[in-house]
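Input chain follows. Return C-alpha cells only.
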Amino acid sequence: MNQEASNSTSSLLEKDVVDNPDFVTVGTITADDAAMTCRNVDVHYGDKQAIYNVSVDIGRNEVIAMIGPSGCGKSTFLRCLNRMNDTIDICRVSGDIRLEGEDIYDRAMDIVLLRARVGMVFQKPNPFPKSVYDNVAYGVRLHGLTKTRAELDEVVEKSLKKAGLWNEVSDRLDKPGTGLSGGQQQRLCIARAIAISPEVILMDEPCSALDPIATAKIEELIDELREQYSIAIVTHSMQQAARVSQRTAYFHLGKLVEVGPTDDIFTKPTHGLTEGYITGRFG
C-alpha cells in the first residue's frame, strides 16, 4: 500500500472511531478473574468529552498495558480507577467502575480507603521530603495498619525488599528519600504504594523519566509484583508494553479501540487503527 493510500485508510478508520456513536471495541474486554470491572465509562472536562464509553476489566495477577498516541485518554482513564480525577473541579466521570464488586463512585465509598486499595505510581518519582523509612511508613501510619514499632519496621523492610531496594538503602533508612537516584526514588514510591497492601497498582508511565538501566529494574519489579497484585500501566513505549503485560488495550481519541492478549495485539491486531499505530504509520 502506498503512503497516500495508507494515510487515506487511516483517516477513514479514525473518522469511523470518532464519528460513530455505536463504535464497539474490538476484542474481549473481560478478564477471566477480574479485580476491577469498568463499564461504559465517560469522562467530561466541562463541555469537552475526553473518554467515550470505555469498558474493560483489570484482571487479578495480570499486567494490562494501556497504549496509544499522546492525548488519547489513557492517563485520564487510569485516573478514574482510584478517583484521582475528583481533584479536578470540572471533571465529571460517569459509568460503572467496581473494585471487587463495590461501586467506587458510590457516595458511601471512603476515598482515602479506596486510594489505599488502589495505589498509584506517577510518571515522575515523587518521594516525600522525609527519610526513606518515613516515606514507606507514611501510609501505614495514616491507616493505622500496625500497632507497634516492631510491626512497622517489619512492614517497611518487607516493602523495600518487594521493591528490590532493601539492599541498596538498608544502611541509610534515616536519610532523605529525595537523595536517592531517580530509579531508586521510583522504586521507593512503589515500596510506599505496596506497604499498605493494595489490591490494584496503577502506574502512569513510571519509567519515562528513567534511564535504560533503571527502567529494566522497574520492569523486572513489575513482573515480580504481578504475582501478588493487579497492575494497570500506561506507557508510551510499545516495547515496554510488550515486555511487561499480559493484555494490552489500545486507546485512540478517547475511545478504547482494541483490547486483547499482548502477543495478539502486537502481531495480529484486529482493528486497522491498532495496526497503524503498532506499525508506526501514525502516533
